[in-house]
From TrEMBL:
Protein name: 2,3-cyclic-nucleotide 2-phosphodiesterase
GO cellular component terms given for this protein: outer membrane-bounded periplasmic space
Annotated source species: Ligilactobacillus araffinosus DSM 20653
Superkingdom, taxonomy of origin: Bacteria
Keywords of this entry: Hydrolase, Nucleotide-binding, Signal
Amino acid sequence: MKIKIVSTSDVHGYIYPTNFTSRNDYHGLGYLKAGAVIEKIRRQAEQDGDIVLYVEDGDFVEGSPMTDYAYQTYNEKHYNLDLVKMVNHLQADVGILGNHEFNYGPNYLNPTLADRNYPILNANMQEGPDYHIIDAPYKIIEKNGVKIGVLGLTTQYIPHWEQPDHIKGWKFEPALKAAQKYVPKLRKKADIVVVAYHGGFERDLATGEPTESLTGENEGYQLLTEVPGIDALVTGHQHRQIAEVVNGIPTTQPGFRGEKVGCITLELNDQKQVIGSKAELIDTADADEEMWMNALTADWRNDVEDWLDQTLTTIDGDMKIHDPMQARLHGHAYLDLVNKVEMDATGADIAGTALFNDEVTGLGHEVTIRNVMNSYVYPNTLVVEKITGKDLKAALERCASFFEVGSDGKLSVSKDFSYPKMQLYNYDYYSGIDYTFDLRQPQGHRVTELKYHGKDVQDTDELNVAINQYRAVGGGDYPMYSMDKMVKQVENEMPRMIIAYLQKHPKIKAVQPTNLKIIMK
C-alpha cells in the first residue's frame, strides 16, 4: 500500500492561469490547474488501492488582484467565501494558517474560513480572543485502516511583520519546540506521522550550512534533523521548489501561485511501517482547469477584470521598466513615484522602496488599476522610523551588497540575495537623499557619498525614513530598522495609497532620478 501526501502552498489567491498583466494573459499556474492535478492523483490512487492525503499549507487568501478585490467588496459581493468552497471541493484533509492569512484581520478571516469542511491545525500558536480559526494542534485521520497523524505548524515570526491589532492576544512559540512536544504523542497514536509546516528551510539541505540569518523564521531543517519520528514533512512560505529526502524523511515545498503540487509517496508494508519513500513536484502548467471551480469563480473573475481596467491617470514620458537591473542601479521614475506616494502619505522626506521582481513593468501612458496591482503586489503598510545617519548608511551598505561584479566586469546579483532563492524584494531604492555606491570596494565599504538636503550625513544625525512594515521590523536582513524606532504608522495598504495618489494627480510627468550614482570602473 502507498500513501500519497499531496500539498498546495502559497497559492496567494492565484486561482486562474494568469498574472493579470492583461485581460487575456495566460500563465501555466493557478489553483484551478493544481486542483485538476490533485483530482488526477486521486483517481489513479483509487484504481491502485492507495491513500491520498491533501494538505493546503497556507497563504491562500491574500496576494492577487482577485483576493484584493474580494477583500475590498466582501460585505457586498462575498467572493471571499468562494475561497473556502474551492478547498472544500478538493476535499482537503487539513489546512494550515500561513502568515499572510492575518493580513486582513479577524473581521475578514473569521467569516472567510467559517464554512470550511476541513480542520485548521496548529500546535505552535495560541489564538487571540478575536479569532475562531484553529481547531486543534493535530488530527488523526484514518484511511483504509491506516491511522495518519497530521501535526500543524506555522512560522513563529509573524509578530515581526503583522499589524499588532491583527494578532492581538496571540502567542507564538518555535515550531521545533511544538514538534518535539507533539510528535512523540502522535507516534504512539498513529501509524504514520506527517508534519505540515507553513515555514521553510534555514539551512542547505545537503550540507547543513545556514542559508539565512537564524532568526527562527524558518525551522524546517531542524524539524528534519532534531525531531525523531516524522515520516513526511510538508513545507511552504519561502516559495521555493523543493522535493528531497533528508535524513530519511521526504519533504516538499511546491513553489507558489499553484505552479506545482507537492507529492510525497510513502510505501507501507503489511505492518503499516514505511519501507520506502520519495518526494516529487508535479507541474500544473499542462493540466486542464478544474471546471467546477471555474464555474464557481467566473463572475468573480469578470468583476475583477472590469475593476482592473479602470483608468486612473496618464503619464507624460516613459515610466516603463525596460531593464530591471538598470532600474536598481540608477533608480527609476516608477520607483521614485512609489517613494513620492510614501512621502505624501507619511510626511517624511526620505523614502525607500523595492522593485519586487522582474515581472514588474512599470507604468505606461494610460495607467489603470491593473497596472498598479501588477506593479505593487504586496499589501504593505507604511512605517516612519527615526534612525541615525549611521543606521541609514548601514541600510545602504546592505543594498550595495546586492550587486556583484565579476572578474570580467559583468554585473550580477550577489549570492546573499540569490541563494537559496532570488530575493529581489530585499534591495531598496531611496528618494530624498543623494548617495553613491562604489562597487569596486568590498561589501560594507561601498557607500562613498551620502547627502541629505545637500549636506553630508553624519553618523549622529537623526532622520525620518518611510519604509514598508516588512522592512521596518528588520525584514530582509536590515537589523538597523526596528519598531522601537517608529514615530508614525500608516495602516492603509500601499496599492490603495498609490491608486488614491494617482486619482488625485490626473497627469504625472515621468522624470528619471539622478540621486543614485554607481562607480564600477
